[in-house]
Amino acid sequence: MTSAVVPDHPWLLPGALAVPTDQVRVGPRRTTRDWIVDGVAFLISLLWVLFVTADATTPDPELAPRLPHDWMIAADALIGLACCVLLWFRRRWPLGLAVATLPLTAFSMAGAIPLLILYFTVVVHRRTAVALAITAAGLCTNFLFSYLRPEPDMPYWVSTVWGVVLSVTVLAWGMFVRARRQLVVSLRERAERAEAEQQLRVAQARQLERTRIAREMHDVLAHRISLLSLHAGALEFRPDAPPEEVAKAAAVIRGSAHSALQDLREVIGVLRAEGGGEEDPERPQPTLADLPSLIEESRAAGVRVNVADLVGAPEAVPAAIGRSAYRIVQEGLTNARKHAPGAAVTVGVAGEPGAGLTVEIRNRWPVGGPADGQIPGTGTGLVGITERVTLAGGRLEYGRDDSGDFRLAAWLPWPA
């Protein structure tokens, strides 16, 4: 299988995004943090090489020399420098470099630190089985190192145990870093998935609201066209009717046709996609004149509703605007029942032709924050209301105001 290539982020485990870690090849791109980490690792390794080389060239005269020949010291220093250079390539080929340099761990003291860093990189970026295999091979070379480079003041087995402890410590640390990075990636994927699902729910709510508005307008349009057919049929049935009756019927036909054309324009503007298979809305459609009955229903359900203002002549409000105002008040009362049970709700609807229609629902913010409530819902009611108001050419505001109350307010255009 072809290996995937992903950037090696400082906190992101390469290949953790649904790709097995043993099939991931770390990409060549480095972040700023990667350059800093690699630079620090290189400097630490270089200082270690210089320290070991200086210590080997000036041995304690009371102890036997650790390397019998000077050329061995120089060779060990060159090996350490080569391992330091290899650190710049460890992100691309961690496993290959670890296997290639594994024999050096049997005798090189100067390359100990850079070789440990290579080993740590393998543990972090490869699956556990590979890390354990490299660890087992490293433990075998550890026995050889203690034999070929014995410490004059330390027994063989003590030196060997310290090497095992160091290897196991690096293994545990690398596995911890690897597990932490996988957890971070998992949490990020979960958050992105939740955000995508929420966006999908919002889009569905908007589409459902468009479909509902279009179907409501369809019913109104059908009603107006039926009036046209009725009066046209009357004229056809009574061609000898008095001129006054003919003029009256023609006026009704003209008004109904004009209203039907307006409704048809609204349907075309709202219905941007084919409707789904939802159930038909209830008939007859509610208008602004049905607000008192809606308020009485809420009061019967135990909600304290105060009416601040209502339009005096609701029949003068255009049907589409009235339906939108009704839906806004309905959503506001529903939210108050769900999230602020027991709180008093104030409803106000005011306006006039040319100035627009203002709808406002206000309730006290519940003590301790909004309640979860037991009323089921999708949490997208306000999204649908926002879409309805926007399509009508109005404005919608909701949230806590300066007094601490929750306020849902909308302005809808009311032609003169």
UniProtKB/TrEMBL annotation:
SUPFAM superfamilies (alphabetical): ATPase domain of HSP90 chaperone/DNA topoisomerase II/histidine kinase (SSF55874)
Keywords linked to the UniProt accession: ATP-binding, Coiled coil, Kinase, Membrane, Nucleotide-binding, Phosphoprotein, Transferase, Transmembrane, Transmembrane helix, Two-component regulatory system
InterPro entries: HATPase_C_sf, Sensor_HK_TwoCompSys, Sig_transdc_His_kin_sub3_dim/P
Transmembrane segments: 35-51, 71-89, 96-122, 128-148, 155-176
GO molecular function: kinase activity
Coiled coil: 177-208
Listed EC numbers: 2.7.13.3
Superkingdom in the source lineage: Bacteria
Entry annotated with the keyword Transmembrane helix: yes
Domain Signal transduction histidine kinase subgroup 3 dimerisation and phosphoacceptor: start-end pairs: 209-273
Record's catalysed reaction(s): ATP + protein L-histidine = ADP + protein N-phospho-L-histidine
Keyword Phosphoprotein: yes
Pfam family of the protein (one): HisKA_3
PANTHER family, sorted: NITRATE/NITRITE SENSOR PROTEIN NARX-RELATED (PTHR24421), NITRATE_NITRITE SENSOR PROTEIN NARQ (PTHR24421:SF10)
Protein name: histidine kinase
UniProt source species: Micromonospora globbae
